[in-house]
Amino acid sequence: MAGLFSLLSGVGSAVAGxxxxxxxxxxxxEAAAGLNTLxxxxxxxxxxxGYGVTTGLGTGTVGAxxxxxxxxxxxxGMQALQGQMLGxxxxxxxxxxxxxxxxxxxxxxxxxxxxxxxxxxxxPGLDAQRAQQQAREFAxxxxxxxxxxxxxxxxxxxxxxxxxxxxxxxxFQAMGMGQQEMMNQANMAGQYGQLGQGYAxxxxxxxxxSFTPMQQQLQxxxxxxxxxxxxxxxxxxxxxxxxxxxxxxxxxxxxxDSAASQLYGNVFGAGMNALGGIGNTSLASGMKQVGGDVGDxxxxxxxxxxxxTGKP
Amino acid sequence: MASQQQNVTIDxxxxxxxxxxESPISQQPGFCLVADNAVVDRFGRIGCRKAFAGxxxxxxxxxxxAVGVDSTVITTHRMGxxxxxxxxxxxxxxxxxxxxxxxxxxxxDSFVCKLTTVGDVHELDELTLPTMLNPTSLNDAKIVSFxxxxxxxxxxxxxxxxDGTAVTNLSxxxxxxxxxxxxxxxxxxxxxxxxxxSYGRLWVTGVGEDYSSIYYSDLLIPEVWYDGKHxxxxxxxxxxxxNVAEYWPKGTDRxxxxxxxxxxxxxxxxxxILIYNNAATGDPAAEGGIFLADTISxxxxxxxxxxxxxxxxxLFVDDSGVRSLGRTIQEKSVPIGDLTYNIRRDITAEIxxxxxxxxxxxxxxxxxxxxxxxxxxxxxxxxMEMRGPSISGGSKMTRWTGCQFRRSMYYEVAGExxxxxxxxxxxxxxxxxxxxxxxxxxxxxKFESTGYTFGQPANIKYVKQIDYTVxxxxxxxxxxxxxxxxxxxxxxxELNIDAQIPALYGVALFGVDEFGDxxxxxxxxxxxxxxxxxxxxxxxxxxxxGNSLSLQEINIQTLLGRLN
Lengths: 312, 564
What we know:
A: 312 residues, 2 domains, 3-stranded antiparallel beta sheet, B: 564 residues, Jelly Rolls, 6-stranded mixed beta sheet, 44 strands
């Protein structure tokens, strides 16, 4: 008997070892499944949920996938102002171009025009002077005098000289005024250009200012993001805790299974040994006791996991 | 019973000259009704004039006798004198007119001649003339002297310039610049014949028959005239044009002559006078230059040569007689003198009767103190004594007959003053000198007093004797005493007027004055008279043929009868 017993004990040990291996494999599988489950749970729990920010300007949202919707666009008033400014700027630019064009025109025609007007203004006076001159000449009997040096009389020449000087003055003044007008046109072109540029800048400013609501919304969303980060942090902390606890539970389960298997192996070995030693029931009982303890430990680990993750 | 015979002495009868304007019986005895071929002599007596003596002995001109010519008249028309290279030169225009037996004009040849003198022989020698457009107008040429040349201006002709050697046209001068302006040449030739050379310029009108415009040359450059171009040839040219058409006080007139006097230019029209002052300025056209100072209406000049500048005044012949402009231009108002006031109607009638007014001329002979108004066509002249006026204000007038000359001209040569007369007898020139006429025949001195009433015009005068105190020289002559009571000389008686023969005293003593000291014979010639009347006229006439004669006094012995 002893040899059978030893054979039995050996077979029993093999069967027991096999059975323990199965249990351990099972435990490992379950642990892996639990981890997968835990991972899935953690993945779900740690996933970014997105957030929204509502301001007086509008409601901006950040989706779970990160997509951002400011919910606020460019300021239409500013855009309109930009258009208005640009329009006025263009108007002044046209003026500037026109004035610049004027400033680059030939001054001759304008000078002639100014000269003609000046002479037209002088004409009544010149006519009166000429009439007085003729009257004086007639009174002196010099109306019929023609000298080589004067063409007519000396008075005629003096009058002609004075008129020529007046005409020269008018001509030079006309030239000066014409050129001054060109300068004025050039200056006006510059001023109009500056005005146009100013309006354009104002339009650009308005254009830039039209983004102010969006900037402000972005700033609000940054604040919202910070808040979302806080929320995410809490979320991730909880998830970490859950993961740690889940892992601990699994580790406990694995440890328990390992211990149970160890214990079962030990027990089954001892029985087998005892079988091998014929009869030692006390040992089998002791093995049974150990097995019951390992089962209790498992149950406790599962219950903790559920508490952490909220999932069965 | 008749009253006592009275003796009335009339000193220097007729020395106031002719007066036909006032009543004969109310005149001063110094006036007379007739003073033919008389002058007022140096002693204030009425006496005979000098002779129109022969001067030039030949007129050396070349002309072709016309076919069928019956009469040929050589006339010296105009004379001019001036210094050329310090030599006194006389030139004259002469023409030869040939007519057939019917008086039809066949041919006229015109010349400019120069007076040449060799010793005491004077001749007129023809000067070679350039081609002329209108040579016959030389008979009314104006000859002026300017800058060592003589200029002959005649109507329609380029002025002739005589430089002492040759006669050229003014336009032939290389520097000639006719009046022009930008429209072109105003007058290619200065072809007027009313000219004065005064104040350093030539002043010409009648250019292109325009008698309203006066062209004046550049200062001292007679070839350069008005240049009114924008770019004149010479910027210093002061030539010009003075148009007076608008200034005639009566609206219209035409220039008859130009006279320079007292810094003024006197523009004589036919019926008005313009006085332009300040004509001597550097440039008349310049400011402050020539100007019209005064105008005179209804007085004008009958012909171009009927003016005379006597230095202190200008005499001119108006239709009313010989007038004078006072030298008071600056006072604006010009006093007008009437030299022929004493014979105004006579002279007016003579002027009016003269068809060709160009035959009227006036000239001043300063060495004789005479101004002579000549009516060449009528061959008479009126002589004005210039030393002083008569008591009426008019000049002392006498009348000359036998005036066979067209013009007279006073000039001085080699310290000798001469009066040349442009003969119309073919003799060239006469000389107013001595007492022997160019004809060699006598001329008649003739005097008639005004009517004498001796202060009692209503009483009948019985004139018993008239004594003529006569001053005579050289040669005895025959005189005729005359008297009358009916306004004319009803009676006459011949007088043998004695004279000392000058040969007794040497020739040189008689050359200066016809009434020279120590050579005169003063004698009283008594004439027994007859007849009676209220107003007595006394006369004397005498032939002058180498002698001279003056009437110094008339002594009248008369009885004053009852009132008539």
